[in-house]
Amino acid sequence: MAVVRGVVVVVVALVVVVVVLVVVVVVVVVVLVVVLVVVVLVLVVVVVVVVVVVVVLVVVVVVVVVVVVVVVLVVVLVVLVVVVLVVVVVVLVSLDSTGSYLARGRVNNTVVILTLLHTLPLTYAIRYHHRQECLYNAACW
């Protein structure tokens, strides 16, 4: 009987050890799976955050480029308008070198400026003004 008891004790001890080992392995596997899932979720969140940051940066860059292009176009347009106005003034002054028309008021400045601005090409307006000068002064160049 003592032998049977010894065998039973050994068998029970082996079963307990196997059960404890199985429980430890299951707990370790569950912990590893949970850690793996958490790591994957953290990586997914990091990837999503990086994608959002990249998209926001691209949008900001596009907006900045559009604003810069619009500002440059507006500046170019303003410069062109100023250049055209300066050319008109220079042409008026050079066509009226004697000062006779503008000084005596024979030619309406607004009409001349509008003629120069709205008549294309600009040389037509210069020729028209020159013909008018020839009519008034009988001095053609």
Automatic annotation (TrEMBL):
Species for this entry: Petrolisthes cinctipes
Protein name: Uncharacterized protein
Keywords recorded for this protein, A-Z: Membrane, Transmembrane, Transmembrane helix
Ranges annotated as spanning the membrane: 7-34, 40-64, 71-95, 107-126
Top-level taxon in the UniProt lineage: Eukaryota
Organism phylogeny: Eukaryota, Metazoa, Ecdysozoa, Arthropoda, Crustacea
